[in-house]
Amino acid sequence: MAKDGMFNLIERKNLLVDKSWNESKKMWHIAGPAILAGVCQFSIGLVTVAFVGHLGDTELAAVSAVQNVIEGFVSGFMLGMGSALETLCGQAVGAGQFNMLGVYLQRSCIITVVTALILVPFYVFASPILKSLHQGKEISELSGKFARWVIPQLFAYAINFPIQKFLQSQGKGWVMTIISMIVLAFHALMNWVVVVKLGYGMLGAAIVGDISWWLLILAQIIYVVSGYFPDAWTGFSSLAFKNLYGFVKLSLASAVMLCLEMWYFTAIIILVGCLKNPEIAVDAMSICMNLELWAVMVALGFNAAVSVRVSNELGAGNPKAAKFSVGVAVCTAALFGIVFMIAVLATKDNFPKLFTTEPIVCTRHLSLGVAVGAGWQSMVAFINVVCYYVFGLPIGAILGYKFNLGVQGIWTGMIVGCLLQTVVLFIVMIKANWQKEALQAEERIRTWGGNAESDRIDYNSSMRPIVLQNY
């Protein structure tokens, strides 16, 4: 009996190891290209900042204000409006209904382009907006000029976010990664030519950024429509304009969730801009955030991976598999967070201790990935309000101004808000009823996918109860 018990224990252990390894491979197949593409696309803005920084402190502060305040504000909403696609495409792939993906993609692009049109005034009136936020007059006026020059990038973001989700939901991210790498190299070269050699300054940097982003978008569009997705892309369809209500509903919930996430960091920049010597303070915080965001790119890769894996398994009616995906992702993200923290502490003479938040960053974005995959956007939006705006920002303001800790005090408040949000989301994730989430995923595919598609799809409604009986 003892031998049989030991044998069964070893067998279960080996089975667990095999399942974890297989799940890890599936996750890395999505996370790997997502991380590399994210780093490359984020680095487009970082390269712009690097070249503009050689023009002067005021120019650097102006571009940083546009990227962190105006684009941070706008990108949060745009990314959120595109993230509905992540939930619906992932769950449709899990259910094997690939012919819904092309219509979903077109619907999402319609919504994000209309959103971009609505958000254009934030770029046009960037200067008075920044002045109203008590930013320096010279910085605000220069920021306003730069913001108007980069309006074409706003519409590039509008198309980029949906295409990313479309590709990631099907595990087809490597082409997107290669395109991003090529565009980043082109962007760096053109900045050197236009800004440094030809001396066109901030205007040249803005135009190069516009060209680089639209090269990225056009290359991705060509990839999508060139026949590589025969089941998912069957051409442009008028169905994209029908039954938009459910899609807009989920898009708005995603937008609010991610806006509150990204606007938190915008608010941090605004608080820093109100300190003494705002040029130096904003420059310092921008450098901190840019370096921190490199770690965030890794976390966002896991965000995309766990979102796709959870939505795939829920769409397929496999709640235990979805929960297991979350467990593997938690362990992997925590491991990478610890590695990043050790690397930063090992180089503390070169990097300030402000950059020791990577475990929080990784786990926080992992939790957001689970939320998107399961469709919990509305609940997470409420959690973000409480953790960030009731606790994080007030604590940062008190430490920064009342106790005269400046940038370090504001950064500490940011960390408190992020840590609190991470803990709350982790508790929600642990207590989730995954079988219930699988049933809701089926209902979401049926209802929010649109009646037009449902009429065209032979969906076996008896499949779901049979799958769930195994659990």
Automatic annotation (TrEMBL):
It comes from the Eukaryota. GO terms for cellular component: membrane. This is Protein DETOXIFICATION. One of its GO terms (biological process) is xenobiotic detoxification by transmembrane export across the plasma membrane. It holds the Pfam family MatE. The chain crosses the membrane at residues 30-53, 60-84, 104-125, 146-163, 175-199, 211-230, 250-275, 287-306, 326-346, 366-391, 411-430. It is a multi-pass membrane protein. It is found in: Membrane. Keywords: Membrane, Transmembrane, Transmembrane helix.
